[in-house]
Structure formats: C-alpha cells, structure tokens
Specification:
Layout: H1 2-43, H2 53-70, H3 88-112, H4 120-147
Helix pairs in contact: 1-2, 1-3, 1-4, 2-4, 3-4
Length: about 150
C-alpha cells in the first residue's frame, strides 16, 4: 500500500513540475513575441543597425530569456521576528516586467495602427532593454539566493 501511495505522489510531483516548465515556456514565448514587436517598431525608425537580423534576433532572445528567468522568482523568506520588508529581487522583477510590457504594448500599438513614433521609439526600445535586463538580473539573483540561502 505504501508503494502505491509513493508512486502516486511521484506522479503528482512529476505532473506539477512538467506544468511549471510548460508555464515558464509559455512566458518565454510571450517575451519573445514582445521582443519581436519592439524590434519591429525600432526597424521602422530606419536606423541602420536596428534593421539587421542579428539585432532582431537579439531582441527576441533577450525577451525570451528575460520572461523565462524574471517572472517566476522564488520569494524572499520572511524572518519570524522582523517587521515585513520589501524583497528587492521581487521589486526588480516586477519593475522590469512592467517596463518590458509597456514597451511591448506601445510597440504593438504603433505597429497595428501604423503610427510612427519617431524619436519616442528609441525611448520605448530603451524601456524594453532596461526592463528585460532587470528581469534577467532579478531571475539570476533570486535563484542564487535559493541555491545559497546561508549567504543571506
């Protein structure tokens, strides 16, 4: 009987882990799509180096990695005696996600409605790069804390 319960528990854990990976893969695809729209908006500005395949591929890849690493971060463990405090990793991730998402939203708007944002597109591209860099940084730091909890 105990063997059957253990096998059932292992199945549940496996299904949960697979669902987690599939969900993160979906977030990565959303990040890649956002990167595609931001890159498309920047290519419309007609700056020579924005209209290259390596630049577009980098934007897509950066979005993929940022959304994969930066959205699903382990939470800071709260001390039992201390007052509640802000988790800087969570704040970095949330701010990065917001900047990347607003940049993607503006880029989608300009692309769909055929609006040329001109110089503002550079600012939108900067928000995208900064936001995704914040996500990647938060994801790496957050996972480092989990891997080495004694360092906190």
């Amino acid at each position: 009987m105990a063997t059957k319960d253990k096998a059932s528990m292992d199945d549940v854990i496996l299904i949960t882990e697979v669902a987690h990976v599939v969900g993160r893969a979906g977030l990565a695809m959303a990040g890649a799509m956002c990167g595609t729209f931001v890159a498309a908006g920047l290519t419309r500005v007609n700056a020579a180096w924005f209209d290259t395949v390596p630049f577009i591929a980098a934007m897509v890849l950066f979005g993929l990695v940022g959304f994969y690493l930066g959205i699903d971060i382990p939470r800071l463990r709260l001390a039992t005696s201390a007052r509640p405090r802000v988790d800087p990793v969570e704040l970095l991730s949330a701010t990065g996600t917001f900047l990347a998402a607003i940049a993607a939203l503006i880029s989608v708007y300009s692309f769909i409605f055929d609006e040329v944002l001109g110089g503002f597109e550079y600012m939108v591209g900067s928000w995208w790069i900064l936001g995704v860099a914040m996500q990647v940084g938060a994801g790496v730091v957050g996972r480092k804390y989990i891997a080495a909890p004694a360092m906190r």
